[in-house]
Amino acid sequence: MDKVYDPKKVEKKWYEEWINNGYYKSSTSNDKPAFTIVIPPPNVTGSLHIGHALNNTLQDILIRYKRMKGFDALWVPGTDHAGIATQMMVERELEKEGTSREDLGRDAFLERVWQWKEESGGTITHQLRSLGALPNWDKERFTMDEGLSNAVRKVFVDLYDEGLIYKDKRLVNWDPKLCTAISDLEVEQRDVNGHMWHFKYPIENSKEFITVATTRPETMLGDTGVAVHPDDERYKHLVGKNVVLPLVGRKIPIVADEYSDPEKGTGAVKITPAHDFNDFEVGQRRNLEMINILDSTAHLNDNVPEVYRGLERYVARKKVIEDMEALGLLAEIEDTHHTVPYGDRSGVVIEPWLTDQWYVDAKKLAVEAIACVEDGRVKFIPKYWERTYFEWLRNIEPWCISRQLWWGHQIPAWYGPDGEYFVGITEEEALQSAKEHYGEEVELIQDPDVLDTWFSSGLWPFSTLGWPEPTAELKKYYPTSVLVTGFDIIFFWVARMIMQGLKFMEDVPFKDIYIHGLIRDEQGQKMSKTRGNVIDPLEVIDEYGADATRFSLTALATQGRDIKLSMPVIQGYRNFINKIWNASRFLFMNLEGYNSDIAYEKETLSTYDKWILTKLNRTIKEVQESIEAYEFDKAASSIYQFFWAEYCDWYLELVKPILYGDNEEDKQRTRSVLVRVLTTALGLLHPIAPFISEELYQRLKSFGVSVKGIDDEVAHSIVVSAFPEFNDDEIYTDEENEIEFMKEIVAAVRGLRAIVGLHPSERVKIALLPASESVSIQISHNKESIINLASLSALELLEGEKPERAMAQVISGVEVFLPVEGLIDIEKESQRINKELGKVTKDLEQTEKKLSNSTFLDRAPEDIIDKEKQKLEEFSTQKKKLEEVLFKLKQIS
To answer: Which domains are present in the chain?
Structure first.
């Protein structure tokens, strides 16, 4: 065995082995209980980022764990067709070739997209393999597979037939560069410095003016009203009157509406219903005209005075300001800081735009979606995410599902010669409906728009299992068991899957929803390319291995908290993986003469053996309970603590004298316990760190070691081994307490050695004063181990009198003394400690002062304040320790 674990020699080999042996497969024909996860489908254009790595690691842990627990575990992989992202990517390729999608035409362009998808679209699923993710690759799905496309068309038609899908003219987020409506998730709100222009609008037949303010002056050309608060005394006399809209000459009413805030600005608000979401609501309430002044590319259209027609929006803005100033109607220009919506892909400012689109009546579908969470059919973990879910569903708006793109599910609606539309799963159905309507056969043209990608991904939990066909997969694996996802798509995806699942399957799509945190850098800042703090999981896997990457992410995945990830953290867990490797290497080097057919007998177990078996069983219980409760970090912590702090640091050290000794019976028993413990611990480790656990299990097999498989007497791979079971018969409380007491003594001695600055290899004499005879007997049992582990030259058991000039430490049941005569210069050491204490005290006072400064607390970023609080805690701890050391030195001086 190599001295250092090399993941490159292991990972590819075992992943191919798992695939070749079909360990990932599920089967509808067995009678095992089902456990199902559908992957949140990443964009087909995507590449594995650190968020994907976290999300898929957690899913893989659950699937591997449940498979080992005897479940028929199905993890459905797949990708989303990602309408805008994919179309943009292919369009960029065409641009390099000097052509465009318009030049190609729709059919040829779509052929080109499919070609791109076949050649480059599987990148992320291949990258998932490098992470060790083991879904059922035979069941891989794509949102535009023929079966899934059939499901999409059927859902559209069924919802349309029930009146739950309809066409309407409403405001949408319009991207003037991509010329399509986009979802809220695709809108990025940016904080910008800008201006607020205050315009005076003249009251009709009056010398009065009413002043309004706007950050988008060009939209005044589409104003159809001015709103004031009904209780605002300044304007009560004007309600019901008109203003004459400058530059246009249109008379528009002054209306009373609570949308206007008397405390904000002048208290009067210009209303442009066709270009502002809030204004649209006011316009509907007050029956105001809706005038669209922009075309699809954000140039002014024919609904404005001729002088502005055809102008790009920002050119028009400049001209409107100049013209208002020339008329003496520009009252003020105010600097302001406000948010502006940008398209996250196009990078241009989004316009609220009034246009005909297809909508889903989401409010009706939301009723049952709310109820299923209220009554516990669906559980959010952590529970507080329910509030976010309810808040959105209780205030839900009609869902705009049409997109002005070519790549996607084309809307199954066809238009007749007079614009009447006919909806059908196929064109033949639509033609038949048209014939019945017109009384003759007519030519139909399909709606050119495609559906929002969230429409098809909302069907993912059942469309991937074969719906609308009544498949065996659907019968066994729906509803799925758990959804693992991030909080950012609770609105856009989670809620829609629940609505669609309840509607078409008459059951929830999943029982549990585990919401994990966002991965941030070590300062708690969001990772971004501009900050230069992005951690690339593929680079991390290449350098440190998949297991170290997975363990790092799992160990930090605390419920309800974002993850602060850094390279030192990953390096630390790489060291842990290497520690497991070296501990196993030590065992393999000491297995000469080991006979796997001879198991240890309970009666022959030493105190050390019983202690480690107790710790092992407690760890089994902790890991199982933690994974079942989605407390992944606790599972990782239990495994880490057991392997490093108990198995490696203590048990291996305790049994080394036995392994190096001459008693063959003791050696055989110890080897058996070591093998049992390592084999079981690898089973616990496997869901989180699959590669090293497989490699070490296979090496154990070469010594004749085996564990029970989930289907066979012997597991050929750890993937299909039975998960370790808690055994109450192997809980030895007395022996556990005895060894824990011994560890306390060793820790106390090590602490005293550190205080006086002794080198770890320097052997010294200590004295122990037990509180009782039973304690004295326990110490005597473990005397040699204490001497070895604490690097002692001698250990004296006292019967009453305490030694002079000795450092002392009191622990439960015993006083520990380290005679310091000749070891240290007490006066010199006291001076050194005093000097160090002075520095720490000064640092502590400065930090306390900073944290009591209200200006600092108000202005400093949260991560900086957290750092200072952490420093305060560290300085306080250091000060306390140094004071304790000084006190001890004074006692013996």
So the answer is: 180-352 (3.90.740.10), 537-731 (1.10.730.10), 735-824 (3.30.1170.10), 827-892 (1.10.287)
